[in-house]
């Protein structure tokens, strides 16, 4: 331990191996073999206890020649930095701009630099939907807007919002809106 800390080695070590975010901002740990320092909550692989040093501030770790972890970004201010928020925001931006294109989960995951499995899990945890469900919601919102604001046919709307077949468009529309596109347009124009 390079800097003394009143928590003690055992408490800090337990915080590191359990990725306990309660200790974020109280101390940082560095791994001698990788020359990287992290927050206690970092989800990277637990290091060997004999290869770690503890620091009170990121600046102390940097002075000792360690560089900040790209995953948990310990050099950023704030105790509650959550790298998943940035990933989620990136995915929302990509989906919003490309809702009319076919994007697989793996392609989306590659864009943000994590596996498809983790992307699905993280996104659902933060947003409440999987990326596929989220893009379907965007498509439904766009469909409803187009049905009410343009003379486009149901078929034209279907392809404009990214569906590849009318049957999948009608099925999704019925599921999310509770009626067919034709009924939706008619009911909204009457009200």
Automatic annotation (TrEMBL):
<protein>
    <submittedName>
        <fullName>Helix-turn-helix domain-containing protein</fullName>
    </submittedName>
</protein>
<dbReference type="InterPro" id="IPR004026">
    <property type="entry name" value="Ada_DNA_repair_Zn-bd"/>
</dbReference>
<dbReference type="InterPro" id="IPR018060">
    <property type="entry name" value="HTH_AraC"/>
</dbReference>
<feature type="domain" description="HTH araC/xylS-type">
    <location>
        <begin position="89"/>
        <end position="187"/>
    </location>
</feature>
<dbReference type="Pfam" id="PF12833">
    <property type="entry name" value="HTH_18"/>
</dbReference>
<dbReference type="Pfam" id="PF02805">
    <property type="entry name" value="Ada_Zn_binding"/>
</dbReference>
<dbReference type="InterPro" id="IPR016220">
    <property type="entry name" value="Me-P-triester_DNA_alkyl-Trfase"/>
</dbReference>
<keyword id="KW-0238">DNA-binding</keyword>
């Amino acid at each position: 331990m390079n800097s003394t800390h009143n928590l003690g080695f055992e408490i800090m070590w337990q915080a590191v191996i359990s990725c306990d975010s309660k200790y974020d901002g109280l101390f940082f740990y560095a791994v001698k073999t990788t020359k990287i320092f992290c927050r206690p909550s970092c989800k990277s692989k637990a290091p060997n206890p004999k290869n770690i040093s503890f620091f009170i501030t990121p600046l102390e770790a940097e002075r000792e020649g360690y560089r900040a972890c790209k995953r948990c970004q310990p050099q950023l201010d704030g105790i509650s930095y959550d790298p998943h928020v940035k990933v989620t925001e990136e995915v929302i931006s990509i989906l919003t701009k490309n809702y009319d294109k076919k994007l697989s989960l793996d392609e989306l995951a590659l864009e943000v630099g994590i596996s498809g499995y983790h992307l699905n899990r993280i996104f659902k945890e933060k947003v409440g939907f999987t990326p596929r469900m989220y893009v379907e919601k965007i498509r439904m919102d766009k469909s409803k807007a187009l049905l009410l604001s343009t003379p486009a046919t149901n078929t034209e709307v279907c392809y404009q919002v990214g569906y590849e077949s009318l049957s999948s468009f009608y099925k999704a529309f019925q599921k999310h809106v509770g009626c067919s596109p034709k009924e939706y347009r008619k009911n909204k124009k009457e009200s």
